[in-house]
Amino acid sequence: MAITAGQPDMALANDIPLSSLAPNTAGSYRPARAQAQAGIILSVPATLLLVALVIGPAILVFFLSFTNASLGLAGIQFIGVANYTRMLTDPGFAQSLRNTALYVAVVVPTAIGWGLLVAVLIARSRFAVLYRTAYFLPVAASLVALATAWEAILHPSLGFANTLLQLLGASPVRFLSDPATAIYALAAIGVWQLVGFNMILFLAGLSTIPEELYEAATIDGADSGLKRLLLVTWPMLAPVTVFVTVMTIIRAFSVFETVAVLTQGGPMKSTSVVLYTFYEEGFRFFRVGYASAISVSFFVFVTFLSLVQMRVSERRARWKANGGQ
After folding, report:
1. pTM of the model
2. Which residues pair with 67 in a beta bridge?
3. What does DSSP assign to residue 170?
4. Which ranges of the chain does DSSP label H, i.e. alpha helix?
5. What is the pLDDT of residue 39?
6. Using omega within 30 degrees of 0 as the cis cutoff, is the peptide bond preceding 267 cis?
7. Burial 183-207 (b: 16+ CB within 10 A, else e)
């Protein structure tokens, strides 16, 4: 029998048993139930670690916030919301709130504005990689080590900052030991650390802006850099700006390392912030119940900010999906 090119050999095809062409479902494919069981078994170690290291301690802290628990004391009594009520009347906690609010008021707008300015300036620079690396180094490095370096820079007599001031004819400044300047010195360090993080986020947002928008803005008369920034760049960066703002606020409220290393809340409680107060109450004064109440309140605040950010992002996404109407 002649076989033409491009035609299958029907005789040979008929000789092949159909059973050999069917997939071996019993051997090649595991049943869905067996796969689900395997997935559950594989997820058990990670789930146990999550419960032991995150969920369990969180539940314990929430429970302790309603007790008078204290390290070194045998008995624990349930006292209701007494710890939360005490937060409202505690002058030390009120002072830490004021210090934290001042720190946030200085750090947040400065870090966001500076990060945006740096991102816009280096977006088209030939040395963008070098600048990104230099600005991002404070984010990648250990903050405790950086705080130690800043302690040497701001030393009242041997530090580089005061040496430079003396060369300029100014008097030395006790940056970290003067109650009037300590919180601002810590805020300057916080800005220095957060600028690089915000810059990276803004650069990612700038890379998504179509070039056609800038061309259209130029045709409409927005030929200067400031007009292009206000009419094109800033509106298109709105989602990124919301995220950067929320993250910067959370990180500013979470300041702890620089306070613990440089000032320990001093001088005269002028740099005692919320998280450092939590640390002192729980690990120095051993008032675990009160420290737990501070921790829970801080967690609620951070969660609220995150929900606001998600809500704003969802609304803007729906607005863009509806064509801006």
Report:
1. 0.81
2. 78
3. P
4. 10-15, 25-28, 32-50, 56-64, 82-89, 91-122, 128-140, 143-153, 160-167, 182-206, 211-219, 225-228, 234-236, 238-253, 257-258, 274-279, 288-321
5. 84
6. yes
7. bebbbbbbbbbbbbbbbbbbbebbe
